[in-house]
Write a structure and sequence with these properties.
Keywords: Hydrolase. By secondary structure, this protein is α/β, with parallel strands linked by helices. It contains 12 helices and 7 strands. β4, α3 and β5 form a beta-alpha-beta unit. The longest helix has 17 residues.
């Protein structure tokens, strides 16, 4: 059963839906709402369990998140959108593209990858999910996830950004985070989806991203028929938060191509 997602909206023009990273809510897109408001109609949903979106009782699955998003687009009477996401949001974007390619007019894939988790990475996600369920505390995410989210430059030169990200992680509902970890651990390889994507695409990478490799970025770029890659210097895994000006500038170039 789908759930009704809460969302934030700003601006007018081409509809752009951006999906948040793990383990953050749609609040991570706050800067985008004022930097991109003159360029597009920006819609940023909270995935189930985050913000005021209910978690529901469905088994963890990317397909469940796809169904939630499709319902939101139906409610907003949007037949076609530019769709993108960062990290986990990118996984959901590719899963949505698999099911509803006709509803996507452009792609933003930021700090994400098309490959499924190898066995060890999937097992680590399950381990973290079990810890979240056992402790019922987001401290597990600070201990296991926070350290890889920001680039070294951000951690040293922008301590306020690091503090804000840590506070946002501590506010994460543990049950929602566990659900998402299980869903991501089971996600499918998406290279076939990218090869069939006949739309303009933007791949955003962080120069200091500890989680996404150059090989991950190159593999997505090779699979997509019409992709451009933008690497943001001195940024890690959360490029939209660490350098929103550079991130939003890249998005504007994509919107001009759609």
């Amino acid at each position: 059963m789908t759930v009704e997602l809460t969302y934030q909206e700003s601006g007018h023009g081409t509809p752009l839906v951006l999906l948040h990273a793990f383990p953050l809510s749609s609040a991570m897109w706050a800067t985008q709402h004022w930097l991109l408001a003159d360029t597009c109609r920006l819609i940023t949903p909270d995935q189930r369990g985050w913000g005021d979106s209910p978690l529901g009782d469905e088994e963890p699955s990317m397909d469940v998140l796809v169904d939630d998003l499709a319902l939101l687009l139906d409610d907003l009477k949007l037949d076609r959108v530019v769709l993108g996401g960062l990290s986990m949001g990118g996984y959901v974007t590719m899963a949505f593209l698999r099911r509803y390619p006709e509803r996507v007019s452009g792609l933003v894939l930021a700090n994400t990858k098309a490959a499924a988790d190898p066995e060890g990475a999937a097992a680590n996600r399950v381990r973290i999910a079990h810890a979240l369920e056992h402790t019922e505390s987001a401290e597990t995410l600070v201990e296991n996830v926070f350290g890889n989210l920001l680039g070294q430059t951000t951690r040293s030169a922008k301590p306020a950004v690091a503090d804000a990200v840590k506070a946002a992680i501590l506010a994460t509902p543990p049950r929602a985070a566990a659900w998402a970890e299980y869903a991501m651990a089971k996600r499918a390889d998406s290279f076939d989806v990218l090869r069939a994507a006949d739309v303009p695409a933007l791949i955003i990478a962080g120069e200091e991203d500890a989680l996404i490799t150059d090989a991950d970025v190159a593999a997505m770029a090779e699979a997509l028929p019409d992709a451009r890659v933008v690497e943001i210097p001195h940024a890690g895994h959360l490029t939209a938060v660490e350098d929103p000006t550079a991130f939003d500038g890249a998005v504007r170039t994509l919107l001009a191509r759609v």
